[in-house]
Recover the amino acids of this structure.
């Protein structure tokens, strides 16, 4: 048995696989090496597969337009990353760079999906979990990089329902809005006033009217 | 639950089961729209309530809530924005 196969079989993802299946996965692995500081993958780019750190350490992070960074994970030997797009089919949710000379195994998405191809229910569950994890990653990005006004603008855009729509109109107190976007009521009150002053919303009694969605989008 | 929308007037919702009749809402309502009726808070002058939501803030029992409907207005004329 090759040392690479031993390594693969020692990972939680591949525990209990038959020799044949583990061998099939091992055949499709690509081994890549990176110098310290080198970028392994970029947020928003198509997914190349699941990454497993063989040696070294990788910093997984989100970046803002202004260049600020939020580290999500430091992945050491035997850690995996980029799991989400492998299973939900979307782009890379975060970037990664080598903290030191690093070697990784890249397991193609198709190889990973083949492990659950015979079980549609498992695939459905995994896809759902991956989508939820992507949502949480975006929430971390919002909390890290966006102002309260920007987060509130985004939430109102997501929530607002046209009156002629069949969907139920969401009803939220200011405390509930605060809890949704990770702040406190007083700040929500000021943010609503700021959005109203900009002409993006209008508050009429118990109704928050999104009167200019384009203005809200520019604040997101 | 009392409150909501009364004949075009919007008022806070009061959960009488939670109301402790402490009177804070009565004392602190800037529009003097709240009073105690049969030992429970009530919006007695709904036409004076401007839905400032102060009563929700001051109610330590969590009996008063002021939810907002979040509505997308399509094609509203600029002068009405």
């Amino acid at each position: 048995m090759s040392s690479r196969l031993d390594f693969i079989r020692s990972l939680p993802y591949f525990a209990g696989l038959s020799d044949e299946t583990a061998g099939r996965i091992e055949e499709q692995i690509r081994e890549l090496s990176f110098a310290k500081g080198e970028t392994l993958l970029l947020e928003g780019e198509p997914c190349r597969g699941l990454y497993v750190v063989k040696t070294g350490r990788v910093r997984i992070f989100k970046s803002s337009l202004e260049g600020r960074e939020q580290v999500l994970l430091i992945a050491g030997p035997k850690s995996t990353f980029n799991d989400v797009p492998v299973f939900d089919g979307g782009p890379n949710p975060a970037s990664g760079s080598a903290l030191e000379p690093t070697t990784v195994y890249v397991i193609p998405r198709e190889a990973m999906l083949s492990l659950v191809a015979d079980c549609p229910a498992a695939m459905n569950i995994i896809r759902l979990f991956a989508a939820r994890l992507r949502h949480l990653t975006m929430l971390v990005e919002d909390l890290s990089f966006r102002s309260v006004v920007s987060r509130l603008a985004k939430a109102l855009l997501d929530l607002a329902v046209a009156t002629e729509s069949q969907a139920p109109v969401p009803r939220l107190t200011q405390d509930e809005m605060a809890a949704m976007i990770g702040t406190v009521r007083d700040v929500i009150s000021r943010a609503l006033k700021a959005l109203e002053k900009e002409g993006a919303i209008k508050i009429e009694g118990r109704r928050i009217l999104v009167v200019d969605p384009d203005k809200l989008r520019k604040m997101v | 639950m009392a409150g909501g929308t009364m004949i075009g007037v919007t008022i806070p919702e009061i959960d009488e089961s939670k109301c402790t009749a402490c009177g804070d809402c009565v004392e602190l309502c800037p529009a003097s729209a709240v009073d105690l009726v049969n030992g429970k808070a009530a919006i007695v002058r709904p036409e004076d309530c401007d839905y400032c939501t102060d009563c929700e803030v001051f109610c330590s029992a969590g009996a008063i809530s002021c939810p907002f409907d979040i509505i997308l207005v399509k094609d509203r004329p600029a002068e009405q924005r």
Remarks:
- The mean pLDDT of chain A is 93.
- The longest strand of chain A covers residues 69-75.
